[in-house]
Design goal:
By secondary structure, the protein is of the alpha/beta class. 49% of the residues lie in helices and 14% in strands.
């Protein structure tokens, strides 16, 4: 969705003689940027005595968002010793399995060897889903039976990745609500079991956040960060109605930065986060 905020502002400034602060405020709220950012944008406009012309609002929004978002997402680089382990976490249906496959495809295209681990043992179909990706991409998938302990499975997968001298191991985990403390604790257990084989693993813990679901992702980020120590964010479904403003709110409130964006259901629909094009789409 290119220029979401610009479109909305264009509509409201076009529809009225004078646009008032409340209307701009309401629009900024809908952008998922979060209350502190929306307030800061309005403050900038007020303190500089700027009119509510859409270009002024957009410029202030761009400046404010740029304070928190990195110019480029930090890329993945394999570690010198042993497999580089990535743990994918998030609430249900955000795109963890698809993003695991996309990352595997991206790394493979760079000549890196990858092993996938189907650590979502909670849903029988989840293992099949990742296996289907593995076949399609020519990437081996380590799996176990339905109901198996994900921590034990990830441990075995890392042992295998070490044996095979894989550059990367990507562990796809089950979707879980950030409010379910037993499920959140399971993630710490997965981390501990990986660390038994390599004290520096997992090297990345990515929260996969669906940008079409709006500001709830801020709470998710806080809870997942507390339980599993996030190292980055994958923003999915930016090809849909997702505005992506939530990335600013998450960065501002948790310090967790976007790394990759998902823009479709195909293996190639992933790219490194890029602030300029992201702001272009969002604002
Ligand atoms: N349009 C679009 N669809 C996506 C994207 N990422 C994932 N999807 C779709 O979203 C749906 C859910 O994706 P999954 O990868 O199964 O999500 P998940 O987080 O693994 O789901 P659970 O394991 O059930 O928690 C699938 O239909 C995907 O094809 C994206 O970037 N854009
Ligand atoms: Mg899944």
């Amino acid at each position: 969705m290119a220029g979401w905020l610009k479109n909305v502002l264009g509509r409201i400034t076009g529809a009225h003689e004078a646009v008032d602060w409340e209307e701009i405020e309401a629009t900024l709220w809908q952008s998922d940027l979060g209350a502190p950012t929306a307030t800061a944008i309005l403050e900038t406009l007020r303190s500089k005595g700027l009119s509510l012309h859409s270009e002024n609002v957009l410029a202030a929004a761009r400046a404010e968002a740029s304070k928190y978002l990195p110019e480029k997402g930090a890329d993945l680089t394999p570690s010198l010793e042993g497999p580089f382990v990535i743990l994918m976490v998030g609430v249900n249906g955000t795109g963890k399995t698809t993003s695991s496959a996309k990352l595997a495809a991206l790394l493979k295209s760079r000549g890196q060897s990858v092993l996938l681990c189907a650590a979502d043992t909670f849903r029988a179909a989840a293992v099949e889903q990742l296996k289907a990706w593995g076949e399609k991409l020519g990437v081996e998938v380590v799996s176990s039976e339905y109901g198996a302990d994900p921590a034990a499975l990830c441990h075995d997968a890392l042992a295998k990745a070490k044996r095979l001298k894989s550059d990367f191991l990507i562990c796809d985990t089950a979707g879980r609500l950030h409010t379910k403390s037993n499920l959140m604790q399971e993630l710490s257990k997965v981390k501990r079991s990986l660390a038994k084989l390599d004290s520096s693993a997992p090297h990345e813990v990515f929260l996969v956040a669906d940008t079409t679901t709006g500001s709830n992702a801020v709470v998710q980020a806080k809870e997942f960060h507390a339980a599993a120590g996030l190292t980055g964010l994958i923003l999915t479904k930016l090809d849909g109605s997702g505005k992506g403003g939530v990335a600013v709110a998450i960065a501002r409130e948790t310090g967790i930065l976007p790394r990759f964006i998902g823009t479709g259901e195909g293996a190639e629909d992933i790219s490194l986060f890029n602030r300029a094009s992201f702001l272009e789409r969002m604002l």
